[in-house]
TrEMBL record:
Gene3D superfamilies for this protein: Zn(2)-C6 fungal-type DNA-binding domain
Domain Zn(2)-C6 fungal-type: 24-52
Organism whose genome encodes this protein: Capronia epimyces CBS 606.96
Name assigned to this protein: Zn(2)-C6 fungal-type domain-containing protein
GO CC term (a single one): nucleus
InterPro entries named in the record: Fun_TF (IPR021858), Zn2-C6_fun-type_DNA-bd_sf (IPR036864), Zn2Cys6_DnaBD (IPR001138)
Keywords: DNA-binding, Nucleus, Transcription, Transcription regulation
GO molecular function: DNA binding; DNA-binding transcription factor activity, RNA polymerase II-specific; zinc ion binding
SMART domains given in the database record: GAL4
Length: 590
């Protein structure tokens, strides 16, 4: 018996296969009919007597939201941000800019601790692809040195005011040698990551600095570009990778940066942000190379430029995010540098009346206002893994210490101490309450390792600030500070231990670990300190060899004195600042 026949009507009726295309005219596409695609007009529209919409792209120009056009939710572009005024970019540069734009777009997350991190991050100010992002657009605009004193923060940082239609502002001369490309790649993917204690989506050395440097249309931008290459080459030379050739390249770009900086500073339209960024990059290049003293000349030069803006009534840190980060970095490095000085170091010469951080004399109201304005900028302190309160406390301790050394301590000293302790308690409360003020510190990746790194950084800074306070103000011996010493070193050890497990290559900030290490005297704490030193030396930073030398010299002197006096090493105080001076070592504790 054969198989029963299935009635035709019982078979499923499959829809006819169609190959959908998007090449028809706009009229046929809106009618959802097949277009014959003849040009300039299709025969379908002609046969029906319809106006053929053609095949070109449809653009809707929106100006000041005055038109009735309503966005359908797609990305929009500001009229002043179109590609028309700009030159065609090299494909390598396009890939670089797109990659970092995409990085930022995917960096927002909800942390496991409940911190809400905004998806809006500091953009690459000169990245043209950032105009396709929904949200605020802060386009980098070099300062011409003509900012009016009355400019408000909202005006000077307005996205619309910061847009520059001039094609001369975006000139990409990207004809680079293979060596320069190698150095630039190493800077972006390695050196820039070491500039912060943890990987972060707002790392200005990985985003803003390379993007501004790639312009190379002004002496300041070219100086920054060569400074980045010098920084990268010095780091490679410390890693013993072709040490001699890399040292030659580093010196070449270093000298070229100096010449360009002289040209930029002497230029009528000198750009503050670019010039300061280039100087600060040279400073870090000197630090990475292991040079002991020359970096301080760069610090003084950059600070002088900032002082000049104050005498003119300007606030250059409000010009752009790039200028803001550069000024924050300058201020923080100056605060950290001053912790290693005493009034006998030759730094107590008369300073300018506009020095906003004169730690040898009590600052004036104008100077205090200037410092407060910089500290009040968004995210101040996050690049070093600290908070505004911690940096402010460290600065106040140094000020009080130098006043005591010059016998200028007055009735207000107790008030200053209360203020310092209040600053440190503020950060403690932030950690206890998981304050949203700490959101800025959270790295770009949500995970236990990244969360732990933020916690260990802050706790180490708090304990180190207490150690610094009691040592330089009250001259308490290490035994009275053992709890703070142990806690700071344990947090540094926990940071490095979780870093090895998580394989993140995060770089613990130098200052808190060093402050605790030089005061360590027990076997347990010295073991933790040695472990941290080994970890710190693994990053190829030349200055850290000098740090190890200072720490071990302090330990040796403490042991010798304790042996001579038959005393507990914990009661022997050794001033590490005097040890640095005796060794003729000047190290930046960053």
């Amino acid at each position: 018996m054969g198989k029963p026949r299935v009635p035709a009507r019982a078979l499923p009726k499959w829809p006819r296969q169609r190959n959908r295309t998007f090449t028809g005219c706009w009229t046929c596409r809106s009618r959802k009919v097949k277009c014959s695609e003849e040009k300039p007009v299709c025969s379908v529209c002609q046969r029906l007597g319809l106006a053929c919409g053609g095949y070109g792209p449809k653009l809707v120009w929106v100006e000041d939201d005055n038109l009735p056009y309503k966005s359908d939710g797609r990305r929009t572009m500001l009229c002043g941000s179109t590609w028309k005024p700009y030159e065609v970019l090299d494909s390598e540069l396009v890939d670089f800019l797109i990659d970092h734009c995409d990085e930022e777009a995917s960096s927002g997350y909800k942390s496991s601790r409940g911190f809400q991190v905004s998806s809006r991050t500091v953009p690459v100010e000169v990245n043209p692809f950032t105009v396709f992002r929904v949200g605020d657009i802060h386009t980098y605009r070099p300062s011409s040195g003509r900012q009016t004193p009355s400019s408000s923060p909202s005006q000077s940082r307005s996205p619309l005011l910061s847009l520059s239609p001039s094609p001369n502002n975006l000139i990409y001369d990207f004809d680079r040698s293979a060596a320069e490309k190698h150095l630039f790649h190493h800077y972006v993917n390695h050196v820039a990551l070491l500039m912060m204690p943890f990987e972060h989506s707002r790392n200005p050395w990985r985003l803003s600095y390379p993007a501004v440097a790639l312009h190379r249309s002004s002496p300041g931008q070219r100086a920054l570009y060569n400074a980045l290459l010098a920084h990268s080459a010095f780091h490679l030379s410390q890693l013993s990778v072709n040490k001699q050739p890399m040292s030659v390249l580093a010196v070449k770009h270093y000298n070229r940066t100096i010449r360009l900086l002289m040209e930029s500073i002497g230029h009528r339209d000198s750009h503050y942000a670019e010039t300061v960024a280039a100087i600060m990059t040279l400073l870090m290049a000197e630090t990475y190379s292991g040079q002991s003293r020359r970096w301080r000349h760069h610090l003084n030069g950059a600070w002088s430029l900032l002082q000049q803006t104050q005498t003119q009534g300007l606030k250059p840190w409000l010009e752009s995010d790039f200028a803001c980060f550069s000024t924050q970095s300058l201020y923080i490095i100056r605060v950290i540098d001053r912790t290693a000085t005493t009034v006998s170091d030759g730094l107590d010469e008369p300073l300018s009346s506009v020095d906003c951080e004169d730690i040898f004399n009590r600052p004036s109201t104008q100077e205090t206002s200037f410092s407060s304005a910089i500290r009040a900028t968004p995210g101040f302190g996050f690049t070093i893994g600290a908070t505004k309160s911690i940096i402010e406390a460290i600065s106040k301790i140094t000020l009080a210490a130098h006043q005591l050394q010059r016998q200028h301590a007055g009735v207000s000293l107790d008030v200053d101490l209360m203020s310092i302790l209040s600053n440190l308690r503020d950060t403690e409360r932030m950690l206890e309450t998981e304050s949203q003020d700490l959101d800025i510190l959270l790295p770009m990746k949500d995970g236990p390792v990244q969360q732990a790194h933020v916690y260990h950084q802050l706790k180490a800074f708090i304990h180190a600030a207490h150690i610094y306070l009691y040592r330089v103000i009250f001259d308490l011996p290490p035994r009275n500070l053992q709890w703070h010493i142990s806690q700071a070193l344990q947090h540094a050890s926990a940071f490095s231990g979780s870093d090895r497990l998580g394989k993140t290559n995060d770089n613990f900030s130098l200052w808190p670990a060093f402050i605790a290490a030089v005061e360590a005297y027990s076997d347990e704490d010295m073991l933790l300190a040695r472990s941290w030193l080994d970890y710190a030396l693994s990053f190829g930073l030349g200055s850290r060899l000098l740090i190890k030398k200072v720490v071990e010299e302090v330990w040796m002197r403490r042991k010798d004195v304790a042996t001579d006096l038959a005393a507990d090493p914990g009661v022997v105080s050794v001033d590490w600042r005097e040890v640095m001076r005796d060794l003729d070592v000047v190290v930046l504790l960053i």
